[in-house]
Design a protein that fits this description.
single chain, alpha+beta, Phosphorylase Kinase, domain 1, three-stranded antiparallel sheet, 11 strands, disordered N terminus, Kinase-like_dom_sf
Length: 679
C-alpha cells in the first residue's frame, strides 16, 4: 500500500537531458545534459541493463567518494530499484575520441598525454590501496580538453597492471613505441608497479620526456595549490620568471598541440594566469591568438566576459594591449556589452596625455562603430573626435580622426551626417600637417554620396580650391582628382537634370548603408578603407630616438600603471609603448603609399615631402591658418569645448567685455549725467 504513495527518486534528479539521443558504452547510455537553471554542460549516465543495477550503484558510490584530477568528476546521482542516473562533467567514450584524434604529430601528443593521465590516476589508486579492477577501454572517458578520466568501477575484471598494459597495446593497435615496450613487458611480468612505471616513463629519455608533455605537466602541476573556490595553476603560483618561461614555451609550441588542448586547457590556464597570477600583460597577445581557435558559442561564453573585465582594469599596459588587439575580438562583442561596459572605459583614452593611447583608442573605436547606440555614436563619439581634430598636437592623430570619421559616416544618423561631415572635412583642409589635408580631400571624395549637389557647388568646391596651390605636390594631386570628379558630377546633372535624383539617393540613406561610390571616387574609398596614418610626432622625435632601445626592452616586460592614483591613465612612460612610437617608424611614411607614390625627380626628407619652390612663396601668404577664426566658414568653426558648432548644441554667443573705466574718467562722466538731469 505504501509503495503506491512513494515518490519516484528519479523525478528529483536535478539534471535534464535529451532522452532521444545517446551513446552506448558498457552498461550505460550517455546523454548530453545540464543542471536545471544552469548552463554548465554535463553528461548523464543512464543504466541500460536492469540486471546490473547493483554494479551501477557501486560505480556511483566510488565516483562520489574519489576526488582526483584523473578520475571522472561526479556532480549528482539518483537511484531506484531498476535504474541509476549519474551526472558528471561533459565527456565522451575513449573509443569515439580515438576515431577523431587526428593523425601524425598531434595524434601522438593526444595519445601520450592521455596515457600519462591514465597512469597517474591508476598510480593514485594503487597508492591508496583500493585499485580499479576494470581497466578497459569502456572505463575511460575523455573531456573536451582532451584529458582522459577513469570511471567504470562497476566490475572487477583483473589486475590493474596487466589490464593497463593490454589497454595500451589496443590503443596503439599492437605497435608499441620503442620507449614504451620495455615498460609494458615489466608490467606483464609483475616486475614493476604502476607507480614505478610512471617514474620510469617520466625520467630523462623516457617515453613521457617530451618538451610538450613537460609543458602540459608544468601548467597542471607546478606549484599547484587548492584554495576554494579557486584552484591555482602553475602560472598563478609560480614566480614571475617561471611564469614567463612557461608563457614563452606556450607561444613557441602552439602549433604542435591538438586544437582541443589549446582551446579548453591552455587558454583557460593563461586567462587565469593574467587575472590572478604573475604572467602579466604579455600573456594577452597569446590569449587572443589562442581564442581565435574557439567556435562562436565558446568564444562568447569563455572569452568575452574576460575581455569585459579587462576593460575595467586600471593597468594602462593592459588596456593598451586590448586596444591593439581590438580587431580580433570586436566581431564577437555584443552591442549591449559594448555600450554599457566597454565604451565608457574606452573613451577615457581620448583624453590621455600619451599620443599612443589616443591613437590606438581611435583605431579601436572604428572597430566598434557598428555596435554603438545612437547617443554614444552621434553625441559622445563626435565630441571626442571634434576635440582630437581641432586641438590634438599630433598631426598623425588629427589625420586619423578625419579618416575615422569618413569610415564611420555610414553609421551616423542622416541629420548628423548633414551637420558634421562637410564642416569636419573642410576643417582638415586647413590643417598645417600635409597628410591631414590630404585625408580631408579623400574623405570628401569618399563620402560624396552623402552631399546634395547644391552643397557640393557652394561649400565643397570653394573649400577645395585653395589647395590647388598647396605647397605639397601630393596634396595638390589629390585635390585635382577630387575637383575633377565633383565638376564632372555637376556637369552631368547640368546636361541632364533628371540624373539629379539618382545622384542624391544616398543623402538620406539608412544608417549602416554605405554610400555608393562612383568610379572617380573609388581611389578615395580604397584609401580610407585600407590606410590609417601611423603615429607621427615631430615633437617627440628627439625623445623617441634616445629611448628606442628602452622601448624594445619594455615590450618584453611592460610596466603596469599605478592602480592607486587617479584612474590609472596618468604617467605612462615612453618605455611602455610599442613599435608605433619607435624612432625608426617616425616620419617614414604617411600611410598612403598606394596613393602617394614618389614622382620622378622628387626628393623626400625624413619628416615630410619636400615643398615645391614654385608654390611655396605664394602659399605662404594665401594658405589659411588651421587655427584661424572669423573667416567665411563660420558654420564649421569650433567652440570652446572643442566640438563642432551645430552638433546637437546651440551656437555659443560671446558678449564683448566692457572696457574698464579709470577713476579720472569716471568723475567727468558722472558730472555730465547729473547736469543732464538738472536740465
Amino acid at each position: 500500500m505504501w509503495s503506491f504513495f512513494a515518490r519516484d527518486p528519479l523525478r528529483d534528479f536535478q539534471f535534464e537531458f535529451d532522452k532521444t539521443q545517446s551513446l552506448s558504452c558498457s552498461i550505460w547510455r550517455l546523454h548530453e545534459g545540464s543542471k536545471r537553471g544552469f548552463t554548465e554542460e554535463s553528461t548523464v549516465f543512464v543504466l541500460a541493463e536492469e540486471s546490473r543495477v547493483e554494479d551501477a550503484k557501486s560505480n556511483a558510490k566510488k565516483l562520489k567518494l574519489l576526488r582526483h584530477p584523473n578520475i571522472l568528476k561526479y556532480f549528482d546521482s539518483a537511484e531506484s530499484e531498476k535504474c541509476v542516473y549519474i551526472a558528471t562533467e561533459r565527456v565522451r567514450p575513449l573509443q569515439i575520441f580515438l576515431e577523431s584524434a587526428g593523425t601524425g604529430q598531434k595524434r601522438d601528443i593526444n595519445l601520450i598525454w592521455g596515457i600519462h593521465q591514465l597512469l597517474c590516476g591508476l598510480s593514485f589508486l594503487e597508492k591508496a590501496g583500493s585499485g580499479h579492477g576494470n581497466v578497459i577501454a569502456s572505463s575511460v572517458y575523455v573531456t573536451r580538453s582532451g584529458e582522459w578520466k577513469l570511471s567504470g568501477f562497476e566490475a572487477k575484471s583483473g589486475d590493474d597492471r596487466r589490464c593497463f598494459a593490454e589497454l595500451v597495446k589496443d590503443i596503439y593497435r599492437g605497435k608499441l613505441p620503442k620507449l614504451f615496450a620495455p615498460i609494458v613487458s615489466r608490467l606483464n611480468s609483475e616486475a614493476s608497479t604502476l607507480s614505478d612505471a610512471l617514474d620510469r616513463l617520466k625520467a630523462p629519455g623516457g617515453f613521457f620526456d617530451d618538451e610538450r608533455i613537460r609543458l602540459l605537466r608544468d601548467i597542471e602541476h607546478l606549484g599547484k595549490i587548492c584554495l576554494p573556490p579557486l584552484s591555482l595553476c602553475a602560472f598563478q603560483t609560480a614566480s614571475k620568471e617561471d611564469a614567463q618561461s612557461i608563457l614563452t614555451k606556450v607561444q613557441k609550441l602552439m602549433d604542435d598541440f591538438p586544437t582541443d588542448l589549446c582551446r579548453f586547457k591552455i587558454l583557460p590556464a593563461m586567462m587565469n594566469a593574467h587575472e590572478y597570477g604573475t604572467a602579466g600583460v604579455t600573456a594577452l597577445t597569446t590569449i587572443f591568438k589562442y581564442a581565435q581557435l574557439l567556435e562562436a558559442k565558446d568564444y562568447t561564453s569563455v572569452v568575452l566576459p574576460f575581455v569585459v573585465r579587462l576593460f575595467g582594469s586600471k593597468d594602462r599596459a593592459t588596456r593598451l594591449r586590448l586596444l591593439q588587439n581590438m580587431d580580433q575580438f570586436a566581431p564577437h562583442l555584443t552591442a549591449s556589452a559594448v555600450n554599457s561596459e566597454i565604451f565608457p572605459n574606452l573613451v577615457l583614452g581620448f583624453q590621455d596625455t600619451n599620443p599612443t593611447i589616443r591613437e590606438h583608442t581611435l583605431k579601436a573605436l572604428l572597430a566598434l562603430a557598428s555596435k554603438l547606440n545612437p547617443n554614444n555614436l552621434n553625441v559622445e563619439t563626435l565630441k571626442h573626435l571634434a576635440r582630437l581634430q581641432t586641438r590634438d598636437e599630433e598631426g598623425g592623430i588629427r589625420t586619423n580622426t578625419t579618416i575615422c570619421l569618413g569610415k564611420m559616416a555610414q553609421y551616423l544618423d542622416v541629420e548628423t551626417r548633414r551637420k558634421v561631415l562637410i564642416p569636419a572635412f573642410c576643417r582638415s583642409l586647413k590643417d598645417p600637417f600635409p597628410p591631414a589635408r590630404s585625408a580631408g580631400v579623400l574623405a570628401l571624395s569618399a563620402c560624396q554620396g552623402y552631399f546634395y549637389l547644391a552643397e557640393v557647388a557652394c561649400r565643397v568646391l570653394p573649400a577645395l580650391a585653395p589647395l590647388t596651390i598647396d605647397p605639397e605636390k601630393a596634396v595638390r594631386v589629390e585635390v585635382f582628382k577630387a575637383l575633377n570628379g565633383f565638376v564632372q558630377k555637376l556637369e552631368k546633372v547640368s546636361n541632364d537634370p533628371t540624373l539629379k535624383e539618382g545622384m542624391e539617393v544616398d543623402v538620406n540613406a539608412a544608417v549602416g548603408k554605405d554610400a555608393s561610390t562612383s568610379g572617380w571616387a573609388g581611389w578615395a574609398m580604397s584609401a580610407l578603407s585600407n590606410n590609417l596614418v601611423k603615429h607621427i610626432g615631430s615633437r617627440r622625435k628627439a625623445k623617441s630616438e634616445t629611448k628606442s632601445e628602452n622601448v624594445k626592452a619594455e615590450e618584453e616586460n611592460p610596466v603596469s600603471g599605478n592602480e592607486e592614483d587617479g584612474d590609472g591613465w596618468e604617467g605612462i612612460g615612453e618605455e611602455e609603448l610599442v613599435n608605433d612610437t619607435n624612432s625608426e617608424n617616425i616620419g617614414q611614411n604617411w600611410g598612403w603609399d598606394n596613393e602617394w607614390e614618389k614622382q620622378p625627380g622628387e626628393t623626400t626628407s625624413k619628416t615630410e615631402v619636400e615643398r615645391d619652390d614654385f608654390f611655396a612663396p605664394i602659399v605662404a601668404e594665401k594658405l589659411p591658418d588651421a587655427n584661424a577664426k572669423g573667416d567665411s566658414w563660420d558654420s564649421w568653426e569650433d567652440t570652446d569645448d572643442g566640438t563642432w558648432k551645430g552638433i546637437n548644441e546651440a551656437p555659443v554667443t560671446r558678449k564683448t567685455p566692457r572696457k574698464p573705466v579709470s577713476n579720472s574718467e569716471r568723475q567727468p562722466r558722472l558730472g555730465a549725467r547729473l547736469g543732464a538731469k538738472k536740465l
